[in-house]
Amino acid sequence: MKKILILGGTTEARQLAGKLAEDFLVTLSLAGRTESPVAQGVPVRSGGFGGADGLAAYLGETGTGLLIDATHPYAARISANAAMAARKTGVPILALRRPGWEAVQGDRWLEVDSVADAARALGDVPRRVFLALGRQEVAAFEVAPQHHYLIRSVDPVEPKLVVPDADYLLARGPFGETDERVLLEKHRIDVVVSKNSGGAATYGKIAAARTLGLEVIMVRRPDLPDVPSAETVEALAAMVPHFVEPDAERGV
Ligand SMILES: NC(=O)c1ccc[n+]([C@@H]2O[C@H](COP(=O)([O-])OP(=O)(O)OC[C@H]3O[C@@H](n4cnc5c(N)ncnc54)[C@H](OP(=O)(O)O)[C@@H]3O)[C@@H](O)[C@H]2O)c1
């Protein structure tokens, strides 16, 4: 029986895994960075594979018949590795690519190409900045220690930033617009730095910034490999039976 490997770390990956597990043998792969990931509901493997070659070897060893890249749109390295491993092994690949947000009337977005560019774009004059970027990348803001930072992450930022004025907040989404507005007002934030993650779970801060008339420094998405893809869990799930047979014991 051919298996499906889903590269995850996103809400949609978990949803897709749950849906596909009704009919197929599914394993979900996590990078292993989050200290206490939410229960995924399907068999999980955790940690890097050792680059594209390691992933290719894993696909062969496990008899995987379909690889699904459902990682976050900013996880560009694993997506590139997945495309390369699929090419090497001949295992078909599909990607779940959540569409990005589009600016609407009232939004004050400044789009930049990287988190480092976002730090520079804050300018020289001290500002009150909300960072909800993921703890791996906030260190880039140490180059701009003149600002006050409110930093939200799922796991603690360790080590703390070498800046004189930062508050830390631990929370896991989804985050609604009203709560985000209350948070931005309470901390007198005047600029939000965000990735263009897409989806509803983290859009609250973008909508709240619009309502409050705040600037958003939006980090553009990285380039991702060109592989067959779908934008939603349902659309991707519908593509899967073209590539792997259902598991007779689970099958409908
Ligand atoms: N970047 C974000 O903003 C963001 C936001 C939310 C969730 N995430 C999730 O967090 C994880 C790490 O993101 P990242 O941006 O650090 O990734 P990345 O830079 O693209 O990947 C770095 C390395 O981490 C390992 N890796 C990443 N995702 C993996 C997975 N699902 N299963 C096994 N190994 C994985 C791979 O190691 P090897 O080369 O050794 O295989 C990869 O080369 C991903 O699962 C992603 O979906 C990322």
What keyword list fits this structure?
six-stranded parallel beta sheet, binds NADP nicotinamide-adenine-dinucleotide phosphate, alpha/beta
Describe it.
By secondary structure, this protein is α/β, with parallel strands linked by helices. Helix content is 27%, strand content 22%. It has seven helices and twelve strands. It has helices at 11-20, 51-62, 76-89, 115-121, 177-186, 204-212, 233-239; strands spanning 3-7, 25-30, 44-46, 64-69, 93-96, 108-112, 128-131, 148-153, 166-170, 191-195, 215-219, 229-230. The strands form two sheets. Strands 3-2-1-4-5-12 form a six-stranded parallel sheet, with helices on both faces. It has a six-stranded parallel sheet with strand order 6-11-10-7-8-9. Strand 10 (191-195), helix 6 (204-212) and strand 11 (215-219) form a beta-alpha-beta unit. It is elongated and about 60 Å long. The chain starts with a strand and ends in a 13-residue tail after the last helix. The model has no long low-confidence stretch (mean pLDDT 94). Residues 7-10, 29-31, 33, 48-51, 54-55, 71-72, 74-78, 81, 134, 136, 195 line the site of NADP nicotinamide-adenine-dinucleotide phosphate (NAP). Residues 7-10, 29-31, 33, 48-51, 54-55, 71-72, 74-78, 81, 134, 136, 195 line the site of NADP nicotinamide-adenine-dinucleotide phosphate.
Summarize the structure.
The chain is an alpha/beta fold and 252 residues long. It has 7 helices and 12 strands. The chain binds NADP nicotinamide-adenine-dinucleotide phosphate (NAP).
Label the overall shape: elongated
Bound molecules: NADP nicotinamide-adenine-dinucleotide phosphate
Question: How would you write the strand order of the largest sheet?
Answer: 3-2-1-4-5-12
* Helix share, percent: 25-40%
Percent of sequence in beta strands: 15-25%
Please trace the helix and strand order, writing H or E for each element. Answer: EHEEHEHEEHEEEHEHEEH
| SS elements, strand count | 12
Taking Cα atoms only, what radius of gyration do you get, to the nearest Å? 20 Å
pLDDT below 50 for ≥5 consecutive residues: which ranges? none
Average pLDDT over all residues: 94
Major β-sheet annotation: 6 strands, parallel
> What structural class should be given to the helix and strand makeup?
alpha/beta
User: Could you tell me how far the N terminus lies from the C terminus, measured between alpha carbons in angstroms?
Assistant: 16 Å
- Count of alpha and pi helical runs: 7
